[in-house]
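Kindly inspect this one:
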Amino acid sequence: MLELATPGGTALPAPLPPSMVERVTLIMDCFAPGGGTLTLESVAARTALPRSTTHRILDQLVRVGWLAHTTAGYAVGQRALRLGGAQAVAEIRAAAVPLVQELSWRTGLVAHLGVLDGADVRYLDKVGGPVAAALPSRVGGRVPAHTTAIGKALLAWLAPEDVDELTAGRLERTTARSIGELPALHAELARIRLRRGVAFESEEAVPGFACVAAAVRGGEFAVAAISLCGPVGRTVLERVAPLVAGTARTISARLAGELAPAANGG
C-alpha cells in the first residue's frame, strides 16, 4: 500500500481509491497495449492495491470477459478486444488474410479466419472456390463455437472454469453430430490440447462438411483461429493439419513482430 509522510516524518498509509470504478481503472491501465501477461503479484504491485482486493477484482473482470486468465497470468480478454474493435481486428487481418488466402489456394479447400465472440465464433474472413458457396458461413457471421473446429481450437486455450462460464446453457446442437453436453466438450478440448492445439470437426456445424483448425496466439493467449473446411473425410484433414498449424504459428509470429508481413500477401 502507498505511504504518505506526516510533518513529523511518520509514515501513514495512503488511502485506497475511494470507488470501485477507480480501482478497476487502475487495474485495467496495467494492461495497456504491449502490457502482455501479468501475474496477480505484479498487478498488485503496479496498482498499490492490497493483494486480496486485486485478486477479487481480477476474478470479477475475468468472469465478465474484460480479462482472460491462464496458468501464465492475466491478459486482455475478448470483451476488451472487441471494445478495441477496429484496430485489433485490422492487426489480425493484416497478419492473417494473405496466409489464409494461400491456404485455400494450396489445398482447394475453404479457409476461414475467426475470433471468439462470447460463446460464438465471429468470422473475419472466408476464402474458397466454388465449394465456398455451399457453406453458410460468411464474413461477419456468427456460429456457436462448440460446433466448429475454429471455436474448439479457441476454447481449448481457456481454463476449464472459463469454458463452463462461457458455454453454460448454450450447448445447442446445430446438427445431430454437434456436442451437446459439457463433459463431452471438456473431453474434446483435452484431446485438442494433446494434439498441440489442432482441432477437428466433422458435420458438427454443417451436414456434409468437415474442418480442421488451429489457434493464432497473441502472447500467452489465443486471439484468433484459422481453419480449412470442405466436403472431405478425416484422412484429408489429417493430411492438411500440419499446414494449418504451421500457418497459425506464422501468423502468431507476425502479430508478435517476429516476422514482417510479406509484400503482396505472400
Remarks:
- The CA atoms of residues 7 and 167 lie 56 Å apart.
- The chain has nine helices and ten strands.
- Strands lie at 3-5, 11-13, 67-70, 73-76, 110-117, 120-127, 142-144, 199-202, 210-218, 221-230.
